[in-house]
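Q: A reviewer asked whether we had any structural model of the full assembly, not just the individual parts. We don't, so I'm hoping you can provide one. Inputs are below.
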Amino acid sequence: MIESHRRFTPLQRLLHWLIAVCVLMMLFIGVGMVSTVKPKYLPLVTIHKSLGITILVLALIRLAVRLRYGAPPLPADMPEPMKLAAYLSHYALYVLMIGMPLIGWAMLSAAAYPIVLVGGLRLPPILPQSDRLHALLWDAHFFLAFAFFALILMHVAAALFHALVRRDGVFETMASVSTREEVAPAE
Amino acid sequence: MPPSRLSPARSVVLSVVFIAAIIAGAAAAFAYTAGAFSPKRLTPNRMVDAFRSPSGVPLGHRRNHAKGICFTGVFEANGAGSEVSKAEVFPRGRYPALGRFNLGTPDPNAPDATVRVRGMGLQISTPDGQEWRTAMIDPPVFPVSTPQAFYELLLASSSKDPDAMKTFASAHPEIAGFGEWAKSAPWTSSYAQDRFNGLNAFIFVDNSGAEHAVRWSLLPAAQVVPVSQEELAKRGPDFLEQEIADRVRSGPARWTMVVTIANPGDPTADPSKAWPADRRTIKVGTLIVQQIEAERDGPCRDTNFDPTVLPTGIQTSDDPFPAARSSAYAKSYDRRTAEASDYPRSATVAKP
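A: Here is a predicted structure for the entire assembly that you could use as a starting point for your response.
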């Protein structure tokens, strides 16, 4: 049964794990930087902005690849509510991967902060200065960050549940490091 | 390893416990990073909370230097600064300037004569869209050496314990320099007569890539006429704002920007320590203030004069204050922009 599952393509797996590392770093740097006044505050903010743009670019590529190659089907014996949770949480993850960097960029733009990345690279503003928009976007960036982290914890829990409890091959569609594109053997 | 001999049910329970442990560990690490288990960590929130205004939280206003008035004008560079920094504000020319005269108080309604420290926020724009922001004050040294000590100073100065300031001063003798200035420096009746000092050390990078530790000041062109605080107290509560508006209406006010170059070994990490008076200085240009506007509707209102917003050619040094100020200013900015309706613009005052 397990072998009948196609895996994600190597490019998709690469993008998933790259983005996973970036997003986790991002969230930890985010809550760390806003809770310190020490000199490390400045490099952390610069890394946060740079990682955000990196994630935005990677996530857009990933979305395009996903639309092109799709995803392995979920096991037919998975209960419908679990399937629904899987679909919805993956939509939410894509929305957050792409939305959070854009919200951050827009938030800085609305505050008229110059947006300077690692290496001195400068991004243009994407919104005019506005105190109200800044306040709205700040709230969104703050609360969605915690929602994002909570969603990632659920995602990890679900992945491990598939791997350890259900053992239905869903975990292996993304977790395998092998680049071999095996075809499902007819069993 | 032989295959697990656990019963399927036990294996499921163990797996679920394992998963729960992973998730709980990750959540705990996240909470720890956010400071949830560090009640003593000096956070931007705690720093900003330590500014206590006697008239309550000044909703919609800056949490410190809360009273101020906007100006616009130009920075006229004479070209001399290009020797020590490649920043695009130093080649000979005129660069748009935006700023804010202010009082070092968390109370936006403080009478002008009651506030010892005056400040200037300034933003100079380069032709290629970069910005140099700085926020300066008129004392020649900062009261304390570290952001942590500044936080403790804020707590001591708002403490109900009558000995709090004495206790603080004995633990932080560096405050004597500031105290001496506060006691003996002349008061003036105009922002235009005040000298504004950057105090923090920054690094200028020149065209060859060489680095120079610097501090900068704005020296008033207007002659300083000392006035006693008692004399100023007889004037209206906003005499400084009225005076600068009247003055600039009849002609621009000017300051010379002077950059002081540190000698090797001069303290760059401690703004409570002045550099010796014989250090080399360079006059790099003139700030010309051409127009004054009330803060409520003015262009400085929503500008955060974050001293770490710097053009290429100027960098932070090992001075710990610019980072701390950046983090606290951002927090103050986040709060006041969320409270904008408590400080409505006059155009939006219209009744609902």
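A: Points you may want to mention in the reply: The first strand of chain B starts at residue 67 and ends at 77. The mean pLDDT of chain B is 95.
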